Amino acid sequence: MNASSSYFDDFVYVHIDSNVKDHFTALFLPWHRWFLNTFHTALKDKCAYSGVMPYWNWSLDVRNITNSPVFDSDPESGFGTFGSSADEKWEVKDGAFGTTIRAYPAPHVVSRKFNPHPFDNHVFPFGFKAPEMHATQPFAPEALENIVEGSVGNFTDFAYKIDGVTAQGPHNAAHLMMGGDMGNLLWSPNDPLFYLHHAHLDCIWEKWQELRPENAMAFGGGLTQDVDNYHLYPVGAPPAANFSSVLPTEGLTSPIRVADMMSTKTRNLCYKCVW
């Protein structure tokens, strides 16, 4: 890690360093649940934060996503608007984080470049079935309802619908729509909205888990990221993941197993998403 970076930057570094282990693998959802909880704990322990972990319910903003309250320019409480094209860097210069320098991959100000058709940018080495799809289509209430009510007892199918790139699900739609730092697979946590976005994804997983008994402890997929054969292994190639699989915490916390992240009601987490 960079000795001159902040503790916030350390989270970005961990996301970069562990990326091949917890993206496009079975660990995606449990790892990000751990990551969010660790970040929230750090806010409380190091910053005297006493609030809950907020989430951004993008389904409330599908009619006018760029006017969402999360894109607020307030210098004390805002997350900032989209970047300006004036210097072609698309830097977010307003909001509470507008002048903050992020350490990775090199010192810079957070950038955002809105893309209403995020699946038409060829970021990944495979095509999309509907590259013309609008960014908000995966956020529509009916789309999320179908995800939550489907895939009964089938974790890999649920995880693919949430995260699967070729499924054009809500996870990648939001990242690619916002572009800039959020549009990068490695250092997206530079943008504080990363945490609000992933907190909502975690709540969707919790909602799916609680909907039916078959979903509660459903888990599966592989531990190996295989982008070259993504069509065969969208939730990871062998070896198979299980409850004893260890999440890559990279020293932020003591070792954590998948089993420790399977329920938000246990002593490891102890929270409830409020809709």
Automatic annotation (TrEMBL):
Domain of life where this protein originates: Eukaryota
GO molecular function: metal ion binding; oxidoreductase activity
Keywords: Metal-binding
Entry's transmembrane regions: none
InterPro entries, A to Z: Di-copper_centre_dom_sf, Tyrosinase/Hemocyanin, Tyrosinase_Cu-bd
Segments forming domain Tyrosinase copper-binding: 191-202
Pfam families with a match to the protein in the record: Tyrosinase
Protein name, per record: Tyrosinase copper-binding domain-containing protein
Origin species: Rhizoctonia solani
